[in-house]
Write a structure and sequence with these properties.
Order of helices and strands: HHHHHEEEEHEHHH
Shape: globular
Number of strands: 5
Distance between the termini: 32 Å
Helix content: 40-55%
Radius of gyration: 17 Å
Number of helices: 9
Structural class: alpha+beta
Largest sheet: 5 strands, antiparallel
């Protein structure tokens, strides 16, 4: 597993888009994000073998891994060269909420973000019938189109980023306590991307 994680970081130094870095790392690392034993070994190995790949993977893990493994990766990344993409440049934009809980059983949240002048959004479907769990979560660069499609389906209201991500935090907490439920693969693949935004908004 250690070797598989290191191999997964091979394309990262060539990337220029920080969002693509987040998506690639989240999709691969997500299932093992809470395995401290694995990350202790991986971070130590990457720190002992400096390279562009090691630096890029450590930097990405430092931003995306929760808890102590993320801190370990951040510390190890400081001793290596910075990659050409900057995950620290993420900014928050508008957030919108639509309530279809009465007729369809879900809340919809659209939260917009940006890296420089390149916007993107995450759209979340929260199942209000089955414990307010996140059922779907997908990312799009077509923010205006996604917002227009949601407006065709429901009435949307502006909500502050803190309030939106507080709702998401509660939903993801419940989702992670019930890992056996049949969520869409999109929730798993974007889990660390969403969790990072929740942490930044709440802090």
């Amino acid at each position: 597993m250690q070797q598989a994680v290191v191999d997964a970081g091979r394309p990262l130094p060539q990337l220029t888009d920080p969002l693509e870095v987040e998506l690639q790392v989240s999709a691969f690392v997500g299932p093992f994000a809470d395995n401290e034993e694995l990350w202790e070994v991986v971070v130590r190995h990457l720190g002992e073998v400096p390279s562009r790949r090691s630096a890029a993977l450590l930097t990405a893990l430092g931003h995306l891994l929760p808890g102590r493994p993320g801190v370990w990766a951040q510390e190890a990344a400081r001793h290596q060269a910075e990659p050409k993409w900057d995950l620290g440049g993420l900014t928050f934009g508008e957030c919108w909420i639509g309530d279809r809980s009465i007729d369809a059983g879900y809340l919809a949240l659209l939260c917009s973000y940006s890296y420089g002048d390149a916007p993107h959004a995450m759209v979340f479907m929260i199942d209000e019938i089955n414990g307010s769990l996140t059922r779907h979560a997908f990312l799009t660069r077509q923010v205006g189109e996604a917002l227009a499609r949601l407006r065709d389906e429901m009435r949307l209201e502006l909500i502050t980023p803190v309030a939106a991500h507080w709702l998401l935090s509660r939903s993801y907490d419940r989702f992670e306590r019930r890992p056996g439920l049949g969520f869409g693969m999109d929730v798993h693949q974007t889990r660390l991307v969403a969790r990072r935004r929740i942490a930044l908004a709440m802090n």
